Amino acid sequence: MTDPVTVDIPHSLTQADVRAKMDGGITKLAGMFPGGSVVDHRWEDDRTMTFTVSALGQRVASRVELLEGRVRATIDLPPMLALFADKLRSKLAKDGPGLLK
After folding, report:
1. What CATH code is assigned to 5-99?
2. Domain map (residue ranges) of the chain
3. Is residue 29 pLDDT above 90, yes or no?
4. Nearest C-alpha neighbor of 59 from the set 34, 40, 78, 75
5. Taking the model in full, what pTM does it have?
6. Cα torsion angle, 8, 10, 14, 19, sign
7. Is the pLDDT of residue 1 over 70?
8. Of residues 66 and 33, which shows the higher confidence score?
């Protein structure tokens, strides 16, 4: 198992607004993976969304936590996709704020 990719994305939205943006932008988030598509997503509670992305024949378990003033995205890459960890981290840091607009 590789170390998860974790990125904090700042925002100034209400929790309800962030939730709505995440629900509406989940396919964009999956699109950050090479060939990625959402398999499932659900809210565990008011602050944590878990989702699975299929990418290059692999399943990628991911979660988003709504924190005060930021969203923390954590992606558990399987070993085969660990080669993309740095690129994914950079892309999330760069494009992630756009998902919340």
Report:
1. 3.30.310
2. 5-99
3. no
4. 78
5. 0.87
6. negative
7. no
8. 66
